[in-house]
Write a structure and sequence with these properties.
Helices cover about 35% and strands about 20% of the residues. By secondary structure, the protein is an alpha/beta fold.
Length: about 375
């Protein structure tokens, strides 16, 4: 009996590593001799650094940086010395969870701290970067991040603009750094949304409200993003407005194009680094268990459970999904390659109680799943 455990994290309750540990314990409590392969996953959002820190030679680096409102915090990233690769989550320095609700002011938040992480990695000799864009608190098109790397953003009076959403409105000139050899570094941007920079489906209108922007501020942020695209085209001869994914993380998808950033599937980046498909080629699995906190409309677009299921179907393996909540038609989930899906809860529970009881709930559910799946095998 061979089982692959390959989940994403359950935000706020279960890290992917913890999911794997609990699932393995549950399986072995019934089938002690089962061969269980654990592979915590991520799609470029929360958990990217934790997941890829399992790579041989990965080192966790801690840096004092600015959070989205300028407060000093400690943020971590992973560094692979041998390949000179830095793995950075934008959310570690510029994430929405870092702010209290009354601090979420989209016009005033900045990605400067993320740039500080990049700059620290550059000082250590990093040549390759993997950046996860999920969970940002910002809509500054990355000018804060780029400023920390030496870019200058000036208004019509050649004065520095504020490094936030408000500053985009006054932007007139961009001056790249002279001491950064852009042709000597490569930047992979883990991004699984295709929103353009501005407009009805752009960064401001789609994501501004959840970052604290009022309807009036959303319109101003959108105007600022349009202005950013104009100045980038004027000064750097780059077209970023219609780039798929330019609107990711408050326009960070567009901003990172200024340092050669390539937007790619987060799952693809992670699965290739972890050599996930090789696991299927090496082992003949009887069952794959995957999961995430919430299965919804967005889950079909590059999220871990669906992408793991696609890979499993290639090798004709039965797939079970475990999630915190299901907000998507079950029949459509089956069409995506997940053969059966279960909510972790076994009774009506408040969200905070679900978080507290996540481990025992998962343990019990896994036991039931393997008992049913392998009912013809004696424990």
């Amino acid at each position: 009996m061979k089982i692959l455990i390959a989940p994403d994290s359950f935000k706020g309750s279960l890290e992917a590593v913890t999911f794997c540990e609990v699932a393995t314990q549950a399986i072995h409590s019934i089938y002690p001799n089962a061969e269980v392969i654990s592979q915590p996953m991520a799609d470029g959002g929360e958990g990217l650094v934790d997941t890829l820190s399992s790579l041989d030679g990965a080192e966790r680096i801690s840096v004092i940086v600015q959070d989205p409102v300028g407060k000093a915090i400690t943020a971590n990233y992973a560094y692979l010395q041998e390949s000179q690769t830095a793995i950075i989550e934008m959310a570690a320095a510029s994430g929405l969870p870092l702010l209290k609700p009354d601090q979420r002011k989209a016009m005033k938040t900045s990605t400067y701290g993320t740039g500080q992480l990049i700059q620290d990695a550059l000082s250590r000799g990093a040549k390759h970067f993997i950046l996860g864009l999920g969970g940002s608190a910002t809509t500054d098109a990355g000018i804060g991040c780029l400023s920390a790397m030496g870019f200058q953003f000036l208004n019509t009076n050649q004065e520095h603009v504020s490094l936030d959403g408000e500053g985009l409105l006054a932007l007139e000139t961009i001056i790249p750094p002279t001491n950064l050899a852009l042709d000597s570094i490569s930047v992979q941007v883990a991004c699984d949304i295709s929103n353009p920079l501005y407009g009805e489906t752009g960064a401001a209108y789609m994501f501004g409200p959840q970052k604290g922007a009022s309807s009036e501020e959303v319109a101003l942020l959108d105007q600022g993003l349009r202005n950013f695209a104009r100045v980038v085209k004027k000064d750097l001869q780059l077209e970023v407005a219609e780039l798929a994914g330019a609107g990711a993380a408050g326009g960070m998808g567009a901003g990172l194009r200024l340092i050669g950033g390539r937007l790619e599937s987060g799952f693809k980046i992670v699965s290739e680094l972890l050599q996930l498909e090789q696991q299927f080629q090496t082992h003949q699995f009887d069952l794959v268990i995957t999961g995430e906190g919430q299965f919804n409309e967005q889950s079909q677009y590059g999220k871990v459970p669906v992408e793991v299921a696609k890979l499993a179907k290639k090798y004709k393996v039965f797939v079970v999904g475990i999630v915190g909540g299901i907000d998507f038609p079950i029949a459509d989930i089956h069409k995506l390659g997940i053969d059966a899906i279960f909510s972790i809860t076994d009774r009506p529970l408040a969200l905070e109680d679900c978080f507290k009881e996540a481990r025992p709930l998962l343990f019990n559910l896994i036991q039931n799943i393997v008992r049913l799946t392998f009912r013809d095998i004696q424990a």
